[in-house]
Backbone:
């Protein structure tokens, strides 16, 4: 009996196949199918189910000036709202950022209490958002990827939404993991809960008898010989690069780290992400560092650096012992 040349070969339901045979009679069809299955086993399931993106200085370049403006606003807040002496601020900012991930987390750790919304409004409310322009190139790249895409930022929701809107990317992501996601309530102190986030140290900032927080002298702490981070108070703020914070964010968004690509401009965050089994992409650098699986000088180079993300609707040509088979596969990357 002659084989119908238009008959479809029943392959895995994980992708759609449109098989066109170049001759009307195909011998040993089962062997051909076995060889096809072996050669294309690697495309039956993509490497990644989710792309997890940092926001600031990752989706737009550092040259936009927002990062320097944020630093200036933080320093103004420390002077105007917290009454910190101006000559101490540069060293204090450096130590807090280095040891706690963000200046805000460090300020809370050493004893300063303030309203989170007020802080974010002060620090982000005066940023030059007009420096951010719509990015049709990045928008096209993101929309061409049929993969789950999520934002993960230490910033507050208002800032994240505003940045995405300015870039023209507000509809490119499934959701946003932001400051409010990991810090839904204002915590005045670190709890004794075993699930509490412990970023650094084991002590708490002490409280005076009048109920006011005493300020831990972190500058004095590190000025003493042989003092390290072990003696620092903990922070109630949950944020990157804490591995516990990253794990919590992944749990909230139901993200499998083993099948997720994590894009970040921060080397510390990249290394923490690697420690929790994320695949990592360092953005803003052309050379990889420890913990980074990829390095992109710009997020615009995504397709060139990781072309395997674009395996959708690829036409593959294979010859089996002189028999031409054109296979059209639609693979969800």
Residues:
């Amino acid at each position: 009996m002659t084989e119908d040349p238009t008959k479809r070969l029943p392959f895995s339901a994980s992708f759609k196949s449109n098989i066109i045979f170049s001759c009307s009679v195909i011998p040993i069809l089962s062997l051909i199918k076995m060889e096809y299955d072996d050669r294309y086993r690697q495309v039956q399931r993509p490497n990644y189910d989710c792309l997890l993106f940092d926001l600031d200085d990752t989706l737009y370049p550092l040259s936009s000036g927002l990062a320097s403006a944020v630093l200036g606003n933080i320093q103004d807040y420390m002077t105007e709202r917290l009454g910190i002496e101006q000559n101490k601020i540069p060293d204090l900012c450096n130590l807090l950022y280095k040891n706690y991930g963000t200046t805000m987390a460090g300020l809370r750790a050493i004893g300063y209490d303030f309203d989170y919304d007020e802080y974010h409004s002060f620090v982000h409310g005066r940023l030059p958002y007009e420096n951010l322009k719509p990015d049709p190139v990045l928008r096209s790249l993101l929309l061409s990827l049929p993969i789950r895409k999520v934002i993960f930022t230490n910033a507050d929701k208002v800032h994240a939404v505003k940045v995405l809107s300015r870039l023209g990317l507000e509809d490119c992501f499934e959701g946003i993991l932001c400051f409010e996601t990991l810090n839904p309530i204002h915590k005045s102190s670190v709890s004794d809960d075993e699930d509490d986030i412990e970023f650094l140290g084991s002590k708490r900032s002490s409280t005076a008898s009048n109920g006011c927080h005493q300020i831990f002298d972190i500058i004095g702490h590190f000025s003493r010989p042989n003092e390290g981070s072990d003696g620092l108070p903990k922070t109630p703020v949950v944020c990157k690069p804490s591995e516990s914070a990253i794990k919590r964010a992944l749990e909230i968004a139901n993200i499998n780290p083993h099948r997720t690509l994590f894009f970040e401009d921060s080397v510390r965050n990249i290394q923490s992400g690697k420690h929790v089994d994320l695949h990592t992409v360092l953005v803003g650098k052309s050379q990889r560092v420890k913990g980074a699986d990829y390095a992109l000088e710009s997020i615009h180079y995504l397709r060139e650096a990781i072309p395997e993300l674009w395996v959708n609707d690829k036409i593959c040509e294979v010859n089996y012992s002189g028999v031409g088979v054109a296979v059209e596969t639609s693979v969800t990357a």
Summary: The longest helix spans residues 66-80. DSSP finds twelve helices and nine strands in the chain. The first strand starts at residue 16 and ends at 21. Strands lie at 16-21, 50-53, 148-152, 175-177, 260-264, 279-283, 294-296, 314-320, 323-330.
